[in-house]
Amino acid sequence: MDYKLNSEDKIWLERTFDKIQYKMYAQCQRIGDIIPYISENGVYDDMGERDITWWTNGFWSGILWQIYNATKEEKYKIVAEKVEKRLDKAFESFDGLHHDVGFTWLHCSIANYRLTANEKSKIRGLHAANLLAGRYNLRGKFIRSWNSDHTGWVIVDSMMNIPILYWASETFDDPRFKFIAEEHAETVRKKIVREDGSCNHIVILDPFTGELIDNPAGQGFETGSSWSRGQAWAIYGFALSYHHTKNEVYLETAKKIAHYFIANVANTGNIPLCDFRSPKEPVKFDTTAGVCAACGLLEIAEGVPEFEKDFYVNSAISILKAIEDKCCDWDIDRDSIVSHGTVAYHDENGQHVKLIYGDYFFIEGVLRLLNKDLFMW
Ligand code: GLY
């Protein structure tokens, strides 16, 4: 897309991309094919050793494919392929695999397949898509989240996973996967998105009828509050459903949530609180919500008419710039870039930390604006 950027933003983007390259070059040399999650004191440990099915395990590979695509430097591709092979072990598990298989395999295998047409990657992607499709509840019309006793649970994060179903339909030339994605998106729109553009994190639906039973707080402050990363997943997720289906309802839904997000993030200098409806003190930010929402705003900009585009693009740039200004660590000897990510409002050990997905969406946002990104959704 032609972003019609002013010269100040162009210079900022080029400089930021240079800094990303220095940082990721050093990080790739240092950590290689470990599977990072949280960087503590500037050091990542290997989540792949602790839990090979953890939901964030695809993001390092996603970063590597983005940088490879932008620079064509072979070393990133080699490491990304090693990470992808390590993740094969996750397919041996059943209980560990859940609604987040999209996040994982979109970022390793589908990214690889889109760039190199690697047949093994295509097969991995199709396995993951079948696992996600197998979670569909025909009566309730939703893809269930999590395993064990979570029958009937649906979380807004799922909207970022269903693109693997759109991809499978396109790749298999079989609309079944897309039908499931569309039915699920409709259920999320009706049961999770609220009138004012805010969202629930979790709903519990009757597995026999799909009727709403409860809406627990999840990772936000409390039931009825507004977990900012959940709002970001919904913005980007609905924009991506629009991308794949061209159903205007999804674009309108993404816009409604985006307007709510933009209005709220303006209250805190474009760096989102972890929950937009939480007490004033203590102040808890979550930059991961900001960078993901920024990517979603750029995806909305692709879909809206010319006269609306600037609003979404400029909002995305304001968020990315604020986070770059206040919450980025460019020291090449320390792992991870984006600080002030928060795992969950009440997770005392996971507040204002550096999370791999914060880096992923920051990098994707910058590369999108430079037209150097790989579309892996
Ligand atoms: N998908 C889990 C989270 O956003 O923390």
TrEMBL record:
Keywords: Hydrolase. Substrate binds at D100, D157, R229, W233. One of its GO terms (biological process) is polysaccharide catabolic process. One of its GO terms (molecular function) is chondroitin hydrolase activity. The active site is at D100, D157. The keyword Hydrolase applies. It comes from the Bacteria. The keyword Nucleus does not apply. Pfam families: Glyco_hydro_88. Belongs to the glycosyl hydrolase 88 family. This is Glycosyl hydrolase family 88. It comes from Clostridium folliculivorans. The lineage of its organism: Bacteria, Bacillati, Bacillota, Clostridia, Eubacteriales.
